[in-house]
Amino acid sequence: MKVLKVLDSFFGGFSIKNLASDWKGIIEEVWPKYRKYCTKSFQRYFSGCMIKNCESIERVYLSVFPSRYTLSKLKDNSLLFVHHPLDWDEEKGFIPPQEKFLLRKICIYSSHLPLDNNLEYSPTISLVNFLGIKDFKVVLRDNFLLGCVVHNFSLSLLKRKLKEYFNFLSVQETSWGKAKGKAFICAGGCDDVNLLKYIHKLEGIEIYITGVLYFRGSEYAKKYNQLFINYLRRFKIKGVGISHYISEYFSLLKLKPFFEQVFGLKTKVIKDREKLEKIKRDFLRKIF
């Protein structure tokens, strides 16, 4: 199928070393029946075309996760392009997609590392662009992460922009640290101690903006997220989490014209109202 071949060239990432290690362990743990539904290629790379149940594509949908809300909106002969192959709950972590939707006449294409590392469409770059920040520098770009430094970051600007767009504000932040200053931005689930140690070595970082700041939804997180918070306190860096979903949402807005122009297909960004309602209700947290 031509659409899938073109996507492979842009977002498949099959040349990335150890590409499968990004998702293999997680998927096998939380979705043991994935082989029943996923393509042979996906079972090898854990990237690219994940579900292929139709031979022609008439429309495209874009979403961060293959959530229940997202999958319920798809029509037959459509392609769903997602950043993650698994759904995400801001309290529980990764969960499998609802299998009752996976037998329909649809294709699902997942691009995680390749999209994260794309200098035009990555969630991190897209978030910086959404905030209207012009003065930023990409200081970290490897096979697994892309991060930017912003010299004159304002937390009030971030909060105002998010509230204007989503009509609510629900962020997590530490009680310590500055609201203005030199910031490091890395969208997604980046509550990572090694990344934080790297950030600390960058001269003068005062604020860290990511998606996941406080998360205890797995045994791993119960141990290492607390360690991450402790290092933020030790380094006197203010941590700000805007949710996994919201931090990666804005790349979809930039991808929409790409799909329309390259494939000439009607393309719709799915704004997951169920996730947004839950974030609005449950995500707000002050960390002391």
**Helical residue percent band:** 25-40%
| Strand segment tally | 14
* Cα shape: globular
Number of helices: 11
Report on this model:
The chain is α/β, with parallel strands linked by helices and 288 residues long. The chain has two domains: 2-112 and 249-272, 3-Layer(aba) Sandwich (Udp-n-acetylmuramoylalanyl-d-glutamate--2,6- Diaminopimelate Ligase, Chain: A, domain 1); 123-246, Udp-n-acetylmuramoylalanyl-d-glutamate--2,6- Diaminopimelate Ligase, Chain: A, domain 1 (3-Layer(aba) Sandwich), CATH 3.40.1390. The protein is 38% helix and 23% strand. It has helices at residues 2-12, 24-30, 40-45, 68-72, 113-116, 123-130, 155-166, 193-201, 219-235, 244-263, 273-282; strands at 48-52, 59-63, 78-82, 87-89, 93-95, 106-110, 136-141, 146-154, 172-174, 180-185, 207-210, 238-241, 266-269, 285-287. The strands form three sheets. Strands 7-8-10-11-12-9-14 form a seven-stranded mixed beta sheet, with helices on both faces. Strands 1-6-3-2-13 form a five-stranded mixed beta sheet. The chain has a two-stranded antiparallel sheet with strand order 4-5. α8 (193-201) runs parallel beside α9. The longest helix has 20 residues, at 244-263.
